[in-house]
Design brief:
464 residues; 3% strand; transmembrane helix
Length: 464
Amino acid sequence: MSPRPSLHVRGRAARRLPPPSTWPVAALVLGYPVWWALGLGGLSILVLAVPMAVVLVRRRPIRAPRGFGLWVLLLAGYLISAAALGENPPEAHGDLAAGRAIGYLVRLAVYVALLVMVLYLGALRHDELPQLTLVRWLGVLFLTTVAGGLLGVLAPHLEFTSPLEMALPSWIRANPFVTNLVHPTAAQVQHVLGHASPRPEAPFEWANAWGGDLSVLVVWFMVGWWAYGGTYRRVAAIAVLAVAAVPVVYSLNRGLWIGLALSAAYLVVRGRRPVLLAGAAAVAGAVFLLSPLSGIVGERLDSPQSNGIRAFTVVSTVRAAASSPVIGYGTTRNAYGNQRTVTTGRTSWCRECGHPPLGSDGQLWLLLISQGFAGALLYVAFFGGAVRRYWPDRSPIGRAGTLVMILVLLYMVVYDGMISALILYLISFALLWRNAAAVPATVPTAVPTAVPTAVPTAVREVVT
């Protein structure tokens, strides 16, 4: 993200095992592939929020970051939206059944767990969980994501029944939303290019989740391995990025490609050496254009089959939200027909009928259908406020975290944030909060070349 500072926390303190109070976040981030194999994946936050809450209770009073009241209001609004679970907007169908109730309760539990997670991270002292330690844990998850992407490319049909899936009743397993969460698969095989193409998704819920999560994790990977890395880490980082390019291209994920381009532009604008960064980006682009991968990108851009479906669901979602603008309808709904036909859903004689549920094409649209325009505004205000509040922080962590907040606002129109994406978004938010809380207002925004030894260790760690 920026040149390596001259003073950096090293030695046994940085390599020691985390204190007992930090094991929940270590289990969440480092143990994510294990949770995925067990069928929990992002649902692991529901399990780990319990010990996090125990830590919070023991460390009262509980601190909250500025602007966090917006997240509390978002949660309160979601509770109120339950009143409309039995209702349907115009041009939508379906009864209040187990599937609808399960979707609502899972999302509610996730929102509560994420609130606990942010407060828990803020309660941990920097000598317990250094910023660099958390950043490098996210870097390990990036390596896991790249490995999962390669698995999806090389073994796209790999899937298995998880222990959680086996334990669930069949009527719960049959719910598509639940199936995506508890059934591990290496890739989604789709016909985006007119033929079967694997789109990596391991170790996340679906292909779009893999793309969005990778673009967030690569930001933290570069902070830990480049901005705060030595020569060997930097060389390894370049090699890892070259390998990661393969599943990134094979993902056929236009949202991911746009996000990576935005991240590169952000680095050029806000980096300490914009000319060098621009030159490196140009060289990387030239190498890519000369590689066979560029042909796949061209095919994907020439095959926008999903545009019509997205346009239909987005327009239908906005219409539905307009009929309940304050509290929404609690969760997603099914619309009549699709962009081609008025048939309700897919049938044996109309394979092209049917469509994703309203609200499944992006977090913004999910908020519109589930919580109305009020919920969508709270979400935008929360993450947009974080960009405004932490923009002056020009440390590597400050710049990286602000970039992630910008990516959140970009991805809300194309990616559903449930569940892994919101976990990463709010860990990034917590990193920004911890960074700002540890650095006194008198500390210059630029990274100093030296930090007086009188400055407390936690502050020196963040500044450098």
